[in-house]
Amino acid sequence: MRTQIMGVLNVTADSFSDGGRWLDFDQAVGHGIALLEAGADIIDIGGESTRPGSVRVPEDEELARVVPVTRELARQGAVISVDTMRAAVARAALDAGARIINDVSAGLTDPAMLGVAAESGAPIVLMHWRGLLTDAHAEYAYDDVVAEVRTELSERIDAALAAGIAESDIILDPGLGFSKNAEHNWQLLAGLDAFTRMGFRLLVAGSRKRFLASLLDPQDPAGVTNTDRDSATAAISAYCARAGAWAVRVHEPRSSLIAVQVAEALAEHAARAPELPLDPAGAEDSPSPEAAVGPGTSRPAPGTRPDSEVP
C-alpha cells in the first residue's frame, strides 16, 4: 500500500504554523475537506498545541474544539486521527467517529490512554517523548540519538502490549523536533531503517518544522515561507516513502502526495529493472576517455561547452 498522507488540522489558537486559522467550527470543517481534496488519506485533528512555549488548554476546551469537528468530518467519510494526550479526549473522539489515536507522549502524560486504545481496538501512534517542550527538565542530550530513541520507543511498545494493545495496532513515530535539535532530526531521518526494522508501522512528522527552515535559511529560519517549507517537506515525504514509512504527517498534502507517488514509482521500476552483466573483459580493457570521444576530436576544456551544445 502507498505511504499514507496524514493531513494536519489544528483546531487551536497557537499552533506554530497555522494557529488560529481553523479554530472556528465551519472553517475547521472546510479545511478538513480541503485537505481531503488535496490528497490526504487521514485527517489528524488536534485541539492543543505542543509547540515550544505553548500552554496546555483545559480538558473541556480541548473536547469542545475536537469532538464536533471530528463528528462532522467522520460523518462525511473522512478517516480521522485524534491528536491528544488526554484519554478522555481520545475516548470522546473515538465515540464521535475517529479511528486512530495519535498521542505525542505515547501514554506518558495520561496513564489511562493505553487502556482506552486497548479497549477500543483503535490503532495508536506512540511518539518518542521526553516531556513537554516547556518542561525545563526535558532531556535534549543524546550519545546516539537513533539508538536511544529506538530503545525508548521499545519501552513504550512494551507498555502498550502490557496494556492489551495488539501489535498490529501500534504505530511508531520518532518524534522529530520533540526534545531534539536539527542535527538529531537529520540523524533520525538518515536512520529510518532502524525504525522500520522494528516491525511496526512508522509515521514521520517533519512538516514545516524549524530544522527544515534552518536548512533553507540558516540566518533567518523564521522568515522562510510556508511554501518553501512545504517544498522541503515534500522532499522528506519522498525519502520516507522510499524508506518504507506507513505515513507522513503534513500540513499541505498535495505536494507530499506527488512526491510519494514519484518515490514509489521509482522503487517499483527499480525492483523490476534487470541487472546489467559485469564486463568480463575487466576495467583494463575499457576504452580510454580519448577513445570514447572518437578519433580526430578532442575534449573541451573544463568549464566550456562543445560547439554543438545549446546554452
Shape: globular
Helix content: 40-55%
Mean pLDDT, all residues: 87
Secondary-structure element pattern, one letter each? EHEHEHEHEHEHHEHHEHH
Largest sheet geometry: 8 strands, parallel, barrel
Question: What is the count of β-strands?
Answer: 8
**Multimerization state:** single chain
**Compute the gyration radius: what is it?**
23 Å
Order of strands across the main sheet: 1-2-3-4-5-6-7-8
Secondary structure category: alpha/beta
Percent of residues in beta strands? 5-15%
Summed up, the helix count is 11
Uncertain residue ranges: 288-311
| Alpha-carbon distance between the two ends | 43 Å
Q: What does this entry look like structurally?
A:
With 311 residues, the protein is of the alpha/beta class. Helix content is 41%, strand content 12%. The protein contains eleven helices and eight strands. It has an eight-stranded parallel β-barrel, surrounded by seven helices. 41% of the residues are buried.
